[in-house]
Every structure is written in structure tokens, then in C-alpha cells.
Amino acid sequence: MSSAVSPDLSPELRNRFAKFRGHDGCPSRSVSLLLSQSPSGAASAEQASSARLTELFDRKDYVAALKAVAARPDETLSLYVRIPFCAGRCLYCGCNTTITHDSARLDRYLDALDQEMSMVAERIGATRDVLQVQLAGGTPNYLNDAQLTRLTEMMERHFRILPDTDQSIECDPRRTSAGQLELLHALGFRRITFGVQDLDPVVQRAIGRLQSPDLIRDVYWLAREIGFESIGLELIYGLPQQTDQTFGRTLDSVLELSPDRVTCFGYARNTSAGSHQHAIDVHQLPSERLRQALFEQAVQTFSGSGYSWIGLDTFALDTDELSLAQDEKRLHRNCIGYTANPSDHMLGFGSGAIGEVNSNCVQNDCSLEDWEAMLERGEFPVIRGYHVSADERRRRDAIAHMICNLELPAALAAGCLDDEYARLASYAADGLVEVGATGLKITSSGRHLLRSLCSEHAAFFNWDHARWDSARTN
Ligand code: SF4
What we know:
By secondary structure, the chain is of the alpha/beta class. The chain folds into 2 domains: 28-40 and 390-463, Arc Repressor Mutant, subunit A (Orthogonal Bundle); 46-387, Alpha-Beta Horseshoe (pyruvate-formate lyase- activating enzyme). The chain is 41% helix and 20% strand. It is built from 19 helices and 19 strands. α7 runs parallel beside α9 (213-226) and α10 (244-257) packs parallel to α11. Residues 1-14, 16-51 and 458-474 have low confidence and may be disordered. Residues 86, 89-90, 93, 95, 97, 137-139, 172, 473-474 line the site of iron/sulfur cluster.
């Protein structure tokens, strides 16, 4: 990697990167290597995820996993429900979703979801608490009011959803209304996340997704007035036509709203995700250096304004439970994302849904038709999975602990990450970690390179990442 600063950076951003440089003005060799790795990891994460899952794991293994869960009725559950439909295709989208304008198609999907939940509940029983529910997309709020009500009743019929179950939904702000938000709140959803991506009109045209800042503000304040306890906004950096000036304006506008959480994904053009991505003009994409700078800009904006930087790509108000959990070194990461309250098992429902059941990572068939056909035949629609061995689980948990809590206790690494621990310790010379008697701590400089520090282990932690698809936002 060249040590020359990219000319597309503003002087302010050039100064920010200067902190990673040595006395001669160049990054140290180890830091150069880290910086040369992708800051987003979006595409590689998906590839690693797919690589880990194998079709050797099939529905028989899934049934065995459910049986094991049934034998331990005190263990807790979370539900991850995919609604893989959208009204139109955003050009950057890496999500497995179907474009339809046929509401009856969504009704048929709910029929199949009902069947899938019924089959799973029959195997494991409906007596255990559900800690978390996440409706993910596609566009979950593309369901109409009757369908949203039906889906909620369906989940309550098959599982024990409690008044304090943490229920969240991803929403496309272009598809919601005051009536829909009131309904979602009445149905028990307390967390809501809106896809913002970027507020600049030139960037929005380049990604084929137009939504005015006024719309975002209106929807945001409606959700606040209705009483959602947590409102998250999702941004994407690395989009065509983004500059540090345009992205800075987006960040400032988002900051004005004071959302509880902001997630900042990296866009990586991936034409294998669909022909629509060919419509993204490669010549309009920011350089790799600028991509890094845009994310750094988000870090600087939120970190200096009452937010904690959570894990790799999330910012949460200092008073948010994620921030408190990170401070107290008890933050976790599961299929849904970062959480202070992890469940023992994650059940995935819907075409392409992922789950983690009895130490097995599983994924449903991504083909809508095949997923439905299997359910019609009374078969579990799991198409592939991966059994996580006890050793792998230890490795993954140790890495997840480091990502979440910015430390790697020696006791967690012993016997499963010995070489990695030594490698990480060597970064103390660059000021990226501090080595103490009980383990490693990531320094504030190392914090900026955490993704790269962990990237060699992508296969061990990314498959339980909530963001299964790159840039999968609504
Ligand atoms: S980005 Fe979201 S709303 Fe756009 S097509 Fe993909 S899933 Fe649908």
C-alpha cells in the first residue's frame, strides 16, 4: 500500500490519518498491513459465511438440533423472521429479496411462515421465554396492517412472547405511515430501525433510492411521538458520489435527530449479488482511502457527541443498554447483532433466514419457491448449516468478546487463540493494544483498526453476524 495520502481527502481527514503514522510520516509496516485490508469486510464476510455453511448439514441434523433444544426447556429463545419482499430494487442492494406488488403473494408467504413456526414449535414446545424478536428484510413493513397483525399473532400463538420481549423491526421510511407506526407500537414493537443510507440527493440518485431529509425527519419524529423506546438509523459509506463533504452533511443531519443507535455499513460493489449492481458506476465509487476516511468521519462525529462506538460498525447513545454493557464488559454478539441480553438459541424463520440452534448455524433455503415447496411437503426448509465444535465456539466467543468489549482476557484466549494472542500482543509496539497481566486491551488507536485486527478470523465470527447480506438495509 502506498503511504501517500489520497488527494481526495480533505485536509481535516488527512490529519486524522496522521495519527497512525510513525515519526517519518509513514505508517509502520504492521499498521500498513492492517490499513491495507478492507475496512468494511462486507463482501468477504458474506463469502466467509457461505463458505462455512455446508449442505452436508441438512434437515435431519436440524431436527436433531431441535430435539436437543426440546430436552432443555429452561433455555431461552430469540426469533429472527425474514420478510424477503420489497416494492422496488435499490441499486446497491445485496439482499436476497423479491420485488412484487402483489399483496396476495405476501399472504401466501405468511401461510408458509405459519407452517414453519408450527413445525418448529411442535418439536421444541412453546413454553420457554422469547427474549428477542427481530423482523428483518427485504422490507418487513411492506406487509400491510392486516398482515403485520397476522404475523404478530402467529408468533404469539407458537411461542411465548412476553410483555418485555425485545421486539424490533427494520423499516423502509418510504413505506411507512403514522397509522403503520401506531400499529407496530400497539403490536409490541419497541425498537425500530430506518434505512437512511445517505441524505445527499446526488448520492441517492446514484444508488436509485430517493428519500428526502424531510421524509426521514417526519418519520423519525412520528416514531418518537408514538413512543418507540429505541430508534436506530442505518447509514452506508462507500457509496457512489459520496465525498467527505456530502457524507459530513448526512452525519450532521442524523446527529441532529439524536437517534438511539446508528449503524454504519460499508458498501462493496458485488455484481454477483444481482445484475442491478451493474448500474452502480464504478467510476463514481470513492477510493479505498476515502472509504476508510468516511467511516473515520462517522467515528469522529458520533464519538464526540454522546455516542459510544459499539463493536465494528454501530454507535449507541452513551445511555443506551449497548453502551452500558460495553462499559461493563458484558456485551454480546449473536445472529441479530449486538445485544446485552443474549438467548441460548436463535430460531430463523422465512426464506433465507439464519439461525443458531444447539451450537449449529443454520440457513433456510434462499429460493422462495423451494422454501415454500418444502414447507408444503411438511419438510423443514433448512438447506445448509454448520456444526460449531466446542473449540470453535471458544474461539468465536473469545473473538466476539474482543470485538464487543475491546479486550481479550488471556484466560479466554488460552488454548484456543494462543498464536493470535501473541500476534495481537506484538501490536503493542504500534500502540494498538496494551498488554497487562490478565490480558490485552485495545487502545483508542487500535479501536480504529479493530476490524482489521480481527479480519483473519472472519470465518469464525461472521457467520453469526446479523448482517448476512452485504448492505442489507431497508
Ligand atoms: S436495500 Fe432494502 S429496500 Fe432496497 S431492495 Fe434491498 S432489501 Fe429492499
